[in-house]
């Protein structure tokens, strides 16, 4: 315990020369590294090993205990013995931590409960390209794993030759739906925490002077033409082929959004003695910048809805890197790793259901 907190306070710089990162980034890295240590090699639907489960709970309790001392002061009326009332400042847990941390702990427990429920299952796993040595569990699973050939390191789910039983199939679907709700909740908390983080000056300084140059001429023309704007139609026209392209587009759209917002704020900050002619011209420009910023925001939201597994944008990464608020760092990293775990559980369940559907179809043929 002393060693871990010493490293946190030193900002991962054990030389003591003051070259380490701040405490917020250190704790964020600690939660991320702990998640990688505990869940990094877990690639299948099975209970977590007891020692790893104990490690996760023990060390997360240690890291989350910092939140007990992050408080805010509020005025409170106190009555003295002689009957007089005075106003004093009392402390309470900070509102964002008080709301989000219990919710994250609940989501954490639910995910572990889902993993613990996968005991004595009807499905099993084999290494990619291998054949099960159990004659009672030999099936045609090798014919239906083509969708995972690019991920050769992942184990292959296998089902009996007749497929899963109806009860087992329903249980899997229910657990997938539960994991999906957990994923949405964790993603919502993560987004809200990132929204509350300050935008670093380095990011604002790196923004292009013109939002059009960031999104490109074709997207800009679509966003600036007409009174009606449909982000779904625009994304449909772009034909995004990969997650990498989606992330690149998200970075460009987000940069243009803040460029237009900054321009709108600059125009609003003009002094009151500006001439009427300039005021009228700037009002039109402000309305245009405001509209473009709103459309860019809706496009970014729609893009993230289409690609729920999308990595963090450049702005999100920059916020985490320059964040100095320890409470926000804990909430962001905790929700991020739970979001990733929930998404993995969904994907693993979907893989099993995919193999089951193909096995049943082959039997019907």
Automatic annotation (TrEMBL):
Query: Is-annotated flag, keyword tRNA-binding?
Result: no
Q: Which UniProt keywords apply?
A: Guanine-nucleotide releasing factor
- Residue ranges annotated as transmembrane are none
Please list which residues make up the signal peptide.
Answer: none
Residues of the PRONE domain: 1-365
Origin, by domain of life?
A: Eukaryota
Pfam families attached to this UniProt entry:
PRONE
Q: What is this protein's record name?
A: PRONE domain-containing protein
Q: What's the source species for this entry?
A: Punica granatum (Pomegranate)
